[in-house]
Amino acid sequence: xxxxxxxxxxxLAGPAVVWLAVFNLWPAVNTxxxxxxxxxxxxxxxxxxxxxxxxxLDDEQLADALLNSIVFMLVCLxxxxxxxxxxxxLVQRRLPxxxxxxxxxxxxxxxxxxxxxxxWGWALxxxxxxxxxxxxxxxxxxxxxxxxxxxxxxxxxxALTAWKGLGYYMVIYLSALANVPRELHExxxxxxxxxxxxxxxxxxxxxxxxxxxxxxxxxxxALRVFSELYVLSNGQGGPGGRDMSVVMLIQMYSRGFTGHLxxxxxxxxxxxxxxxxxxxxxxxxxxxxA
Amino acid sequence: xxxxxAALTTAVLTATALTGCGLGSDDGxxxxxxxxxxxxxxxxxxxxxxxxxxxxxxxxxxxGVIDGFKKKYPGVEVEWLDQPGDxxxxxxxxxxAAGTLPDVVNLPPxxxxxxxxxxxxxxxxxADPKLADEYVPGxxxxxxxxxxxxxxxxxxxLNTDVNxxxxxxxxxxxxxxxxxxxSLDELIAQARTMKEKSGGQTYLMSRKPGLGDLYxxxxxxxSDDGxxxxxxTPEAAALLDKYRDAFKEGLLPKDVLTNxxxxxxxxFNAGTAAWTTGGGNFITSIATxxxxxxxxxxxxxxxxxxxxxxxxxxxPKSTRNPAAAVALARWVTSPENQAALAxxxxxxxxxxxSANDPFFSRSDGTNAxxxxxxxxxxxxxxxxxxxxxxxxxxxxxxxxxxxxxxxGDASSKQALDSAVEQCNKLxxx
Lengths: 290, 429
Description:
Chain A is mainly alpha-helical and 290 residues long. Chain A has helices at residues 8-34, 51-58, 60-91, 98-110, 113-124, 129-136, 150-178, 182-190, 195-223, 227-232, 246-254, 261-289.
């Protein structure tokens, strides 16, 4: 007869529960608490009710940051959902030397986001490689302000994110494509379906759950964009700070001895709620389609 | 049993939540009691010293200072901690929050202010009544803060800005290195000549203005009580208008809008800009990166009031060894030890006794020596231009709004009003 003690499951799950509670649950709960205070890194703070949330409504820079984050997400979402799929379809074929291309497409994923952004920053600078080529080829008389124009800077950051993320999502699609039954393709081909129809009616439904997962991942990470914009704008958020993302704003308010942890926490909470939106929408769409 | 666990967890979380927001606070000791202990206590036992990025370049120097201290006070043990240059403010913040600040800490005034406000630092004027007699007034004043009684650090080494010009670029593009611009209008006029003669490939001006430039235009940056910013004046707007016109004319590189201050010296080093500002040791440091440029640099005093940069050492009130901490802080900042440091690199002592040292007032005939003399002479009228209340977020906001004004996307008045409004909000917190 086995003897079960009540605490055995707690002993087994204990370390993981403590880890989650200390490093995940507690910081999340503390963020909610701090958002209702005027806390500073030193000296604590006092309860200020909804003051931080009222301040959010009056923050003009936040309006710009929100717009940037949303544009970032809306452009990155289709780019990083469909391009990696097309890339995966190309490199899944068993051709000589295809491993080289798979590795080449994946290489940017391995590189640090900050290092990649620095390299792009040098390339897109007024005196950088891209402007040099544009001027030498006669396509531009004066330097294109990739890093000093609000929208060009934002789209440069989007291009960088897409370039860096392609390989990662391509690998996820490759594994999903491997799970689409070959017999379905063969049957469709026998029935006379063209490659486009086979892609539409066999491949796409086969990878739809993966596509949804990727869309959710992209929408969340795009709304939380930081490194790409921060490094390309030298930490200044572009001219007038109009290229700041919400996370850059949170970082700006929270850093240093006199950081406004209360307001930064309120912004974090707002970003969390906003992030839930596209996630829930995509999951709902997926359920409907299923 | 489940209910008991749930209740316990809730209780722990609630208790932590109620006590957990915010970190660090006054440790309850008064400056008087710690200062008293410092004055009457014996200098012995363990004491820790924290410096900022002095290893490995100044390892021998600091070790020599520590050895001298141990020789002077047998029985004392010094633990030296040197923190890396990057992230020093975060390190100090975490130490302050955890109550683990070393006994003597290198803190520039803007780091010392928030700690002094939280009553974490010792008023060294109480522990050391001779302070004002031995250190230069500018250095001591840097550690007096509006709304706080006392002095919260021993001034250590000082520096200021000097103008550096590339004589090669000036000569090549029709400008005379002996007739250097001494005002903004002259600078803009010469920048125009350089742009025309270089076909827009080389710049004389390569940085956007900051609070220092506003101050030199006669603008009051902050109210006397340190409770609000006041730099949104017509004079400030007129200055930004001049920069906006110069930018529109192509006298400044486009990426000046997003570049931080380091961009200016980077362009100078690369031979794309003919003017930059830097500390007294700029030529020596550039000789490593660009040996061919270094001999062609000429220096001149900063335009307007030169900025005063102060480094100092503070003592946390929580020190367990106040007598040794005060003695060590005095020893590190003593005239002889400061002079030895200043002989190693172009910084300047903050002690009155060092003022007559001919080493600082006489050039060795090199351009680096000339720059050192200019910097030393400038220190006499240098002032802490940027208020210590300006934190990282405020600096970012001011930079952003000035960039907006210069790019023409906002009027100078609008940009300055917005910067002042946002900074005041942050100040009131």
